[in-house]
From TrEMBL:
Alphabetical keyword list: Methyltransferase, Transferase
Domain of life the protein comes from: Bacteria
Name by which UniProt lists this protein: SAM-dependent methyltransferase
GO terms, biological process: methylation
């Protein structure tokens, strides 16, 4: 058991107390996925539920990380082209965005569709964060006639779904192989039951990664039950439409490669990356890469067709990146290039396309470089 201490703050103290009470209530050991859920989403306290800054290009803004829409508006413009095609192919009239962040992506999409004379009848944002919802409403004020916010899905829905960096924020379970035996990693209180200190504790489990992992060495990894359950719920509710998820991650064979022995769980705080989610609880993001094979399998089990899977670079190029770059100045072109450079976001980020209730087609963003066969 390794003990770690946290820096003092009123927010972390309140959240630590909330988590500590739950640890005590369940017998002293909390599975990591529940810890992550509380750290990110506990009402008023969790990272995505409190008022701290999150999104921004520089740490001076008080932010912790930057996403593609904040890097360049060209990102949302190109996503809009894919969504427009999908609305036409599915004969639906509503866009659903999950986890809309600052509202930047929604604004870019709607501005581009407005310029094309192709605005949807409605744009629905599903976001649990009240503070982010307030920012989104300000950013999207000129589209208040067609944007709505919901915090739960209807029993039946139609339309085109988009989620940028949503799946990586779904709580994950941690599995640790030590001396050949698998354990689930959870969180306990530190020495003496100190509520200001959290510590790791591993417990024997029947849970396993979805594939066998070679080698005798110790191995830490994640499984994604909540993320896959989310995809399954979408499949149950979506009657007709399509979905596009953009996130960092890998296919299963790469995700669970024997050399990836430290897993993918990371935290973001003031534009620095670390691997310790037990400190600064509520003040930093906790995230894990996406197992896109697991996402695709869950989608198929839920009745989706998998239309395509590729990296972000191919997706944006296919959606018309070149003419967009030709139309802007060198500074804007330099920023947009980060979206497709291999050492930036171009290769690490992937895009998966799903459809349900319609005849499958090859979407615009996947006509070149589709990797579905590698899932």
């Amino acid at each position: 058991m390794r003990v770690v201490t946290t820096e003092p703050s009123s927010l972390t103290s309140a959240l630590q107390s909330r988590i500590a009470k739950e640890i005590a209530a369940v017998g002293g050991w909390l599975p990591f996925d529940r810890f992550m859920e509380l750290a990110l989403y506990a009402p008023g306290l969790g990272y995505y539920a409190n008022e701290t800054a999150k999104f921004g290009a520089m740490p001076e803004s008080g932010s912790d990380f930057v996403t593609a829409p904040e890097i360049s508006p060209i990102f949302g413009q190109l996503v809009a082209s894919q969504l427009r095609e999908a609305l036409q192919k599915t004969n639906t009239h509503e866009i659903w965005e999950f986890g809309a962040g600052t509202g930047a992506l929604a604004l870019q999409i709607l501005d581009e569709l407005a310029a094309q004379g192709a605005l949807p009848e409605r744009y629905t944002i599903v976001d649990l964060s009240g503070t982010l919802r307030a920012r989104q409403k300000l950013a999207l004020a000129k589209y208040e006639h067609l944007v709505r916010w919901v915090d739960a899905l209807p029993e039946a829905m139609e339309g085109v779904i988009v989620g940028n960096e949503v799946l990586d924020a779904m709580p994950v379970q941690l599995l640790q192989r030590t001396a050949g035996q698998w354990h689930e990693r959870g969180v306990v209180l530190g020495a003496g039951g100190d509520e200001a200190v959290f510590a790791w504790e591993d417990r024997s489990t029947e849970l396993r990664p979805p594939v066998d992992i070679g080698g005798p060495h110790d191995f830490l990894t994640e499984i994604h039950r909540q993320g896959e359950a989310f995809i399954h719920t979408l499949g149950e509710r979506l009657v007709r439409g399509a979905a596009f998820f953009i996130d960092y991650g890998f296919g299963e064979s790469e995700y669970y490669h024997e050399q990836r022995h430290m897993g993918t769980l990371v935290c973001h705080y003031q534009h620095q990356v670390d691997n310790d989610p037990l400190v600064l609880v509520g003040l930093k993001d906790i995230t894990a890469h996406v197992n896109f094979t697991g996402t695709a399998v869950a989608a198929q089990d839920a009745g989706f067709d998998v239309l395509g899977y590729t990296n972000q670079a191919h997706f944006l190029i296919n959606c018309g990146l070149a003419p967009k770059l030709d139309a802007v100045g060198i500074k804007a072109r330099s920023m947009a290039s980060k979206l497709v450079m291999e050492h930036e976001m171009g290769e690490l980020f992937k895009v998966v396309a799903l459809s349900k209730g319609v005849e499958p087609w090859m979407p615009l963003g996947f006509v070149q470089g589709d990797r579905t066969h590698r899932l």
